[in-house]
Protein 1
Amino acid sequence: MKWETAVWMVACLLFTSLPRGQPYKAYHAFVGETVVLPCATTSVGELALSHSKLYWQIDSLLVHFFHNGRDSLASQNPRYHGRTSLFLDEMKHGNFSLKLSNVQLLDAAVYTCIYRQTGDLPNITQKSKIQLIVSVPSSTEKTPSPSGHSQISPRSPAVAPCLAILPLSFHILVTLGIWHL
């Protein structure tokens, strides 16, 4: 077998191991932690929050709503009551990230952040999706950081298939004589 064919086979194996159907970033948190789901606008300069709406939702379920310069949580799903907050001092600079406290297994979902600017200013609508993966910490895993904030883990379940295929790919390269130790 030619080495080009072997390299092509390894590339195909790596490509097929990648997660599919996820045009959004995935974040991992453990039950009980606090996680920040990122969302930011690309607008330049300070934003007029009095003419803004910010929705955080899962499909049609309302997780957090910000309207006319303040939180408007009357229609918030009760499951999220008292567990969500925004970074109010950073919103005028385009940071619409959602802080979710006391993460639960049921919080695992694809979250949509929708920002709308209306009024006399040019109408702007921006939308982004973030997947939250939630798991129960095992007794062998590290405990959450003292701050309680979850960090993006390079070994989160979303990248596990990619890591699992690497030893096999390396073995194939060595066996075919393409990679010499």
Protein 2
Amino acid sequence: MKNVTDSFVSLGHWPSAGSFGFNTDILATNLINLSVVLGVLIFFGKGVLSDLLDNRKQKILNTIRNAEELRGGAIEQLEKVRGRLRKVEIEADQFRVNGYSEIEREKWNLINSTYKTLEQLENYKNQTIRFEQERAINQVQQRVFQQALQGALGTLNSCLTPELHLRTISANIGMFGSMKEKMD
């Protein structure tokens, strides 16, 4: 350590210009060289280092500013999306409520339609039954009429004598004749 302080003290005592030699004290020469290099670096590199640090500082500030702008934009977009989400949720609730009421309405429409269809089918069934009853009644009436006519013809044929037969025919011809005169 004494050598280091001696080297600094000896800096003030330079020998005269006539002598040149090697300083074998490694610590003293390294410190001198290091201080000279640092001095030169500080003197000449101060501007470059200052510019590099200023550029780096500007890049960092720009990056922070951009990040803040992106963050602001992202927050803005997030709020827009949240607003749209709220609107969609409200619309979904309305669709759900409307869907349920639409389902109820369709259910009642279907029930009413089915009831009307059943009424129509019941009416068709009743009409078909009445038609079949009338047809059956007509068939029975025709049979009864045919049987009565056959019975009457049988009775007439058995009771009719040729003379009564001729009088009946004459009376009928007379009736048809008088009907014909009335029509003319």
Protein 3
Amino acid sequence: MLEVDFVICLTLITFVKSEVCQKLSACSCKTSDGVVDLSALQSFTNYKGPKGLYNNDWNPCIARPCGTLPNTGVSICQTEVQKPGVKVSSYINGYLKTASFTGEVGKNLVLHYTGDNATLSGGIKLRQSSISLICVSDSLSNDFTVQELKGDVDYVFTLRSPHACLVPNPGLSAGSILLILFFVAVVVYIVGGILFLRFYRGASGVEMIPNYEFWKGFPLLVKDGMVFTFRGCKSDTTYSQI
């Protein structure tokens, strides 16, 4: 009985595979179903954070300089807000070549960058930036916001845009192909089984249904499996079982 319960428990456990969007370029990534492409976006400039102390620029696809710094190849640049008689400083919070994608499209897709090192009181830390890409398919605008500072030099942004949505591949997706194969297999199983049992074994009536005894008892197996799962995959060893 314990072995049967163990098999039922393992059968009921489902593993959901998540598909990370694989990088194609600094501003695009792909899954088996399509592509997310930010190349149509223009540069976002002079976006202030919650405290209004810095202007933040984001160049999604084309590398640019950052203020008066000699470095090129910059995607995310931060510059102090101009004050009368004070020289402003700029900081590189993300190089274009460091762009990487994590998460799933439409759920938690994030574009990551790394920039220069920052010398802080606690030591040297790497400047980093993360942009949450939120799909807004029914909008024509691109809403870029500076969210917050995580840690000392970890910056968080959000882009709400139709360009953050998945553009499907032409033709059938991988999920559609799997569904078609599944239903074809079901039809072959039922029709082929009926023909085999009818003409090879001479069955008639419900006996022509493939694996009739199994399917007849299947609801009870599902019930036993659900009860076993809600018990934490433990057998009922009480005397009520006898």
